[in-house]
Design brief:
The complex is a heterodimer of chains A (517) and B (323). Chain A is built from 18 helices and 22 strands. By secondary structure, chain A is an alpha/beta fold. The longest helix of chain A is centred in the N-terminal third of the chain and has 19 residues, at 112-130. In chain B, α2 crosses α10 (201-227), α3 (62-86) packs antiparallel against α10 (201-227) and α7 crosses α8. Classes of the chains: A alpha/beta (517), B mainly alpha (323).
């Protein structure tokens, strides 16, 4: 006897205005399996998911759940059909307790106290069955990211979900939390649940799924059993061309120290201590990666290095020049003139002015330089030429610098910023999240450029939340946790497990001992 | 003994002045906890005051006045809701527009209907909510201390004042003890979470606006048919904004908001008592200055003397499904 597939879609289409976000998507997910969906940013994964749980309605095509053709008009319809989604950005009300978040929308009765008592009994059963240990009466705002994700999963189970959609579930997790998640996913599968696992990290697909569907430009490219494919094949299917690194790291020794950070402490915007006694050196001819779970002081570190945030203690020096101490801070303009370029972590906040044209953005931060302005007047033709040459050199598309930056994709915005910052051939480059919101094709190009800079003797510091990225391009990685450096590893000694432990706060000595056991 | 009488009188007027503030502040609280900034409290109060006084004058019934006040205020609240919820307009602009519109519309209609220079006819006591003497107030009057408190302070207010004080525990109960309250608070913090939980954000926010409209309607009616005896041009005199300030000072929570309203009302009552009184050392304070006191206090409080105040996260931000 064969059971009906948990989810089957036939020629599902969804258009937004002129954009065909999903084009005849046919998907087939067997009961009790983990099914992967991979695709680049903007490939149409999110649109598909939102149709599967009733947030969007398809323009045409059929959705069949457990053998029954359904029209899902709202998320509550999907829930009634046993489909629940764990969103990438958690749908939690932060000041509410775990319990309140779980029952929201499924209270069962009007009086909250009774609803909570009933829910508590049911949740204890579920917690035991699936090995959860969540503090039901703690506000969600006090939970870690991993715990919040488990709240979302428990919330889905509480509503009786048999099909769970996990949208990029590992994007925000430490490697250890990822392992926990994978364990939970396997347990859920063993209890008969069906899981849709959406990601763009191929090794996760290989590790956890039974079958995988690749989506590109709104279309299904292929559906294969995971055991019959490889990361290389999947990557090729995702991008539509073989990805190859054009630039290899030259095996050179690094040069002289360029940027020196000595005993630096600094405060966050909220007045908490964000950096505690940080010291390191950045050498010419190396890429230094800064790893850590987001919010552990990396943002403040970038600010301190680029003259955007005063230090409370310690010094930052660039060559012979003082960048930052508790007495003086060099202006970012002066730092740029001294050869320190900055590709900002939060592109839309500090890297570009989204509503202004790409041309105007192409001189942002350099508008005072004599080649772009004189006596307070802009040299428009020089600026135009610069913008065009930036578009040319980085292959920014569409090739129209008069458009507002907001109308470019994340990847093309980033290309523009990179072109702008590299235009003056800086000796030192500080990059925050080089490939955030950038599609795979462009990622490779950006990585190649960073490697090329390093090969020509520049000093590059890269802060990234993506450990795979840092492993791919760095010579050394420093790991931050709660504003401290918990370890420094050379790339040849680096492994994800050790770095993951450091990201969680274990210091270097402790982790090497731990690894020895 | 004289001192006790002074205190009782001062407290008594504090309670009376506080009543419309409390109702309006609770209205603002319900709206903002659901994610809609309601700067139009002032306009709704004034509109309700006008509608209540007009209806009471025409029908000779305070109850008809109250009903008219509530209806008009709810209509304004729904207008604000339509702009903020369906049209995703700017909530400050919409609220301000309501304030300005009502400030002009009410006197205009009053002139057209009653020809009294923008006022409504005087309401005699049969058309107003008058003082209620609670049981045994007369008997207990002579009991020392407690008698004075019961008979002079607790007894002898109009019905709407009692409604205002009763509304605080009722609103608190609804917010914290019912499913509706849970959803209402959730939609003000993270409407997407509510939407994905299968609950209509639009419906919830409209419900909140209706509640705000009702509370504001009672508040405005109290101004013209309980505390006053008819509608006077600009009679809300910034009380809607004061209520908004009290709600912020009360950190969007019912009981602290009540306390903030009482504080504002007390200062207002105090300024009333200070008028024409010669104080030791200072002498007589000009009335223009004493009248400023509640507003000066508002500025001081909101300038941050009371620490960090965190509004509901989604407050003031229109909800859009497709971001």
């Amino acid at each position: 006897m064969t059971t009906a597939p948990a989810i089957e879609t036939k020629d599902l289409c969804k258009r937004f205005g002129a954009v065909q976000a999903n084009d005849n998507i046919s998907l087939f997910v067997e009961q009790g399996t983990v099914h992967g969906i991979v695709g680049e940013n903007g490939a149409g994964k999110s649109t598909l998911l939102k149709m599967l749980f009733g947030f969007y309605q398809p323009n045409s095509g059929d959705l069949i759940v457990n053998g029954q053709k359904l029209d899902l008009d709202s998320p509550s319809d999907a829930m009634a059909a046993g489909i629940a989604m764990v969103h990438q950005h958690f749908m939690l009300v932060e000041p509410f307790t775990v319990l309140e978040n779980i029952i929201l929308g499924a209270e069962g009765q009007g009086m909250l106290d009774h609803a909570k008592t009933d829910a508590r009994a049911k949740l204890l059963g579920l917690e035991q069955q699936f090995g959860f240990d969540l503090p039901l009466d703690t506000p969600v705002s006090q939970l870690s990211v991993g715990e919040r994700q488990r709240v979302e999963i428990l919330k889905a189970l509480f509503r009786g979900a048999d099909i769970l959609i996990l949208d990029e579930p590992t994007a925000v997790l430490t490697p250890q939390e990822c392992d926990q998640l994978f364990e939970l996913v396997r347990l859920l599968k063993s209890r008969g649940k069906t899981i849709l696992f959406v990601t763009h990290k191929l090794h996760e697909i290989m590790a956890i799924t039974d079958a995988v569907t690749v989506i590109r430009a709104g279309k299904v490219i292929t559906r294969v059993a995971t055991s019959d494919t490889s990361p290389e094949n999947l990557a090729e299917a995702m991008v539509g061309a073989k990805i190859s690194r054009a630039v290899e790291r030259a095996g050179q020794e690094h040069g002289a120290p360029r940027l020196r950070v000595d005993g630096v402490s600094a405060q966050s915007d909220l007045g908490h201590t964000a950096l505690k006694n940080i010291s390191f050196e950045l050498f010419d001819g190396e890429v230094l990666g800064v790893a850590g779970v987001a919010g552990n002081g990396q943002t403040e570190l970038l600010d301190v290095l680029t003259g955007l945030r005063p230090v409370s203690d310690g010094t930052v020096t660039l060559g012979q020049e003082l960048v930052n101490s508790n007495e003086a801070m060099t202006d970012p303009i002066e730092l740029r003139r001294a050869g320190l370029a900055h590709i900002a972590e939060d592109r839309l906040k500090t890297g570009v002015v989204a509503d202004m044209s790409a041309t105007e953005n192409s001189i942002l931060g350099y508008q005072r330089e004599p080649d772009f302005s004189e006596n307070g007047l802009l040299k428009l033709s020089a600026i135009n030429d610069a913008a065009h040459s930036y578009f040319e050199s980085q292959d920014v598309r569409p090739r129209d610098p008069s458009l507002a930056v907001a109308s470019f994709s994340g990847g093309n915005q980033q290309k523009l910023v990179i072109a702008r910052e590299l235009a003056r051939d800086p000796q030192t480059l500080i990059i925050g999240q080089p490939t955030r919101g950038v599609d795979i094709g462009a990622v490779t190009k950006i990585h190649d450029q960073i490697t090329e800079l390093r090969n020509t003797g520049k000093a590059v510091l890269v802060v990234s939340a993506d450990l795979d990225e840092l492993m791919a391009i760095s010579d050394r990685i420093i790991v931050m946790c709660e504003g401290e450096i918990t370890g420094t590893v050379d790339i040849q000694d680096a492994d994800e497990r050790t770095i993951g432990l450091m990201m969680a706060g274990a210091h270097a000595e402790a982790t090497t001992e731990g690894a020895g056991l | 003994m004289e001192f006790l009488t002074d205190i009782v009188l001062l407290t008594d007027s504090t309670l009376r002045i506080a009543a419309p503030l409390i109702l309006a502040a609770l209205a603002g609280l319900c709206a903002e906890r659901a994610g809609i900034v309601d700067i139009g409290l002032e306009g709704k109060m004034l509109g309700a005051a006008f509608a209540a006084a007009s209806a009471a004058a025409i029908t000779a019934s305070a109850w008809a006045g109250l009903a008219a006040g509530i209806l008009f205020s709810v209509a304004l609240a729904l207008l604000h809701g339509y702009v903020s919820i369906n049209q995703r307009g700017n909530q400050i602009v919409s609220g301000m527009a309501i304030n300005i519109m009502v400030a002009g519309l009410a006197p205009l209609l009053a002139i057209a209907w009653f020809s009294r220079g923008g006022q409504t006819p005087f309401l005699d006591s049969s058309m107003r909510f008058t003082e209620i003497t609670l049981p045994f107030a007369d008997v207990l009057q002579d009991v020392p201390f407690l008698g004075a408190i019961y008979s002079d302070l607790i007894s002898g207010h109009n019905l709407l004042t009692y409604v205002a004080f009763a509304a605080v525990p009722v609103v608190a109960w609804v917010l914290y003890k019912t499913r509706f309250g849970l959803r209402l608070r959730a939609v003000g913090e993270n409407p997407e979470a509510v939407d994905t939980a299968g609950i209509s954000v639009t419906l919830l926010r409209y419900q909140a606006m209706i509640i705000a409209g009702i509370l504001c309607g009672i508040s405005g009616s109290a101004l013209s048919t309980a505390l006053g005896a008819g509608f006077i041009r600009d009679m809300s005199a910034g009380k809607g904004f004061l209520a908004l300030a009290a709600m912020i000072f009360g950190k969007w929570k019912p009981v602290p908001t009540l306390l903030a309203c009482l504080l504002f009302a007390f200062v207002d009552a105090l300024q009333g008592r200070l008028q024409g009184v010669s104080l030791p050392l200072i002498g007589e304070i000009p009335v223009q200055f004493t009248i400023m006191l509640p507003y000066v206090l508002t500025v001081i409080i909101l300038a941050g003397f009371v620490g960090k105040m965190e509004a509901p996260k989604a407050s003031g931000i229109p909800y859009e499904k497709d971001r």
